[in-house]
Amino acid sequence: MAWIYLLIASVFEVQWAITMKYTDGFSRLWPSVACIVGMVLSVIFLAMAVKTLPIGTAYAVWTGIGAALTALLGMVLFHEPRDAARLVCLLLIVVGVVGLKLVSPAD
Hints:
- The radius of gyration is 15 Å and the shape is flat.
- With 107 residues, it is an all-alpha fold.
- The protein has one domain.
- It has helices spanning 2-22, 29-49, 55-77, 84-103.
- One of its GO terms (molecular function) is transmembrane transporter activity.
């Protein structure tokens, strides 16, 4: 169950990172509310995951998934650069996250 909590935490991390772009420096109410709710839920689910998962593994996976998906969504939603070097680096993050999952204790 801890890995599911970690996946949910990662999804909320992506949600708050993307909605932060729409807050306009936290000057827009509803995007700001959505961003803060996502932050809180992300940390709550991360805390639930680290009850049984090693903190180093959980944190690395949480930030890795969040960083990779946020970068991909930035390319799609905000037309950020999509050059080969960025894509290779994102692939390396995904490989690292999968590797940590494979060598970590089961929930």
